[in-house]
Design brief:
Distance between the termini: 62 Å
Order of helices and strands: EHEHEHEEHEHEHHEEEEEHEEHHHEEHH
Strand order of the largest sheet: 3-2-1-6-7
Number of strands: 16
Low-confidence stretches: none
Helix content: 25-40%
Mean pLDDT: 94
Structural class: alpha/beta
Strand content: 15-25%
Shape: elongated
Largest sheet: 5 strands, parallel
Number of helices: 13
């Protein structure tokens, strides 16, 4: 049975806040209803927040304490794990929001428990994915903790049908807030990237280019020159960029900077939501796209045909699990461990050229586990595979082909 506001009276609620109008309204409403409210925010490298501590300052007028939890290292590690797994969702975009929710809730739960929180409160809409992700991760890491979703509470939906009503409500307590003009779209941001959706983007007749990139530029706005970059991988993870050793956090920040200024990683998707509906989104993920493209060149050199097929199946599974809020499930862990079997050989230095949204391959060096042999694939005379030897293979292949034909199983013969 879903909780309603009255059920929270006398309890300690930990509310996930951004410092926006919704967050302040929900916090104040709960306080006035006799609920002890503590705000929580995870710092996951949000590019639209110059200082994550500003969230606490914006929440202060409501009278609640806001706890800021630095999760940037955890977020960077999760980003590199997704890159290693090539975990892209519908339309081939990097699921930045799905990764962010996994890291955030896992990181906030321990801090909530320290402060005696009994109910986790979130402001996700009742029509999207995040409600499912947030609640599932809460159930996984704190099965004893209740969850309250204000925007599934019929009473609050009736009380606050729009932003104007929220502004008027806060004004009663001397809290200055603004409804703001109509937005063209809404945005969710973290280190992995930005997702833009809703409002004008809901129309399939609206171009994706109405989005103003935050982490970079559109390809046509990028410099009129090629930028060279080298990335060194060890076991499927970037350890050097342009000759400089990098931590996971440094790798993500630098890759975002390089990819962003070159217009890398702008994607469009008409995706399948968890709850069965379709959702249109425009996504920015310059660092994920840059690093993800680079490691693919290493994988292409180190995996045989069957390994590549199996890796693709595992990758799809991990991607779906991240999207569905199941990143820490045993199934996901097992799939990631299987991917590590292939990634342990993914060592190499990749040279790339970046130009106006494009990533061009330049070189692959220091790749000791590569199974590519120039002599074997050469069209010229070489010491590789003896072309005469292929005759036997062709004859063996012909046995099955001819029997399929003679048995009547080939249509149109």
């Amino acid at each position: 049975m879903a909780m309603v506001l009255e059920d929270l009276k006398g309890l300690v609620a930990g509310t996930c806040v951004s410092g926006g109008l919704d967050s302040r309204t929900i916090a104040k409403v709960m306080m006035e209803a006799g609920v002890k409210v503590i705000g929580f925010t995870g710092g996951i490298g949000q590019p639209d927040e110059k200082d994550i501590n500003d969230v606490a300052k914006r929440m202060a007028p409501t009278g609640i304490e806001t706890v800021i939890v630095d999760l940037r290292n955890e977020m960077a590690d999760a980003c590199l794990e997704a890159i290693k797994c090539q975990a892209m969702y519908d339309g081939g975009y990097w699921n930045s929001t799905g990764i962010g929710r996994a890291v955030t809730i896992k990181g906030l739960i321990p801090e909530m428990k320290k402060r005696g929180v009994q109910v986790l409160v979130h402001g996700a809409t009742g029509r999207g994915n995040d409600q499912m992700r947030i609640e599932r991760y809460t159930n996984v890491f704190a099965p004893e903790m209740k969850v309250y979703s204000p925007w599934r509470d019929a009473g609050l939906l009736k009380r606050f049908p729009g932003r104007t009503q929220m502004v008027d409500y806060l004004a009663q307590f001397g809290i200055v807030a603004f409804a703001g003009g109509k937005k063209k779209y809404s945005t969710d941001a973290n280190m992995a990237g930005l997702s833009h959706e809703a409002e004008d983007l809901e129309s399939m007749e609206t171009s994706m280019t109405i989005v103003e990139p935050t982490m970079g530029v559109w390809p046509w706005q990028a410099p009129d020159k090629v930028e060279k970059v080298t990335i060194r991988f060890a076991k499927g993870r970037p350890v050097q960029i342009n000759g400089k050793d990098v931590t996971p956090l440094e790798a993500m920040m630098l890759a975002n900077e390089i990819g962003g200024r070159n217009g890398i990683g702008m994607k469009h998707a008409l995706e399948n939501r968890i709850i069965g509906t379709k959702s249109r989104g425009v996504y920015e993920a310059p660092g994920m796209e840059l690093l993800g493209s680079a490691i693919r060149y290493v994988y292409q050199a180190t995996m045989d045909r069957r390994a590549t097929l199996f890796f693709g199946q595992l990758s799809k599974l991990v991607s779906d699990q991240i999207y569905d809020g199941r990143y820490y499930d045993p199934t996901t862990v097992a799939a990631r461990n299987a991917i590590d079997t292939f990634a342990q050989y993914a060592d190499g230095t990749v040279g790339l050229s970046l130009y106006k949204g494009n990533i061009f391959f330049d070189s692959l060096t220091h790749c000791p586990h590569s199974i590519y042999n120039e002599a074997d694939s050469s069209m010229e005379a070489s010491d590789g595979v003896n072309p005469v030897s292929s005759q036997g293979f062709a004859e063996i292949q012909s046995v099955e082909a001819r029997m399929l034909a003679l048995s009547g199983q080939i249509e149109g013969r």
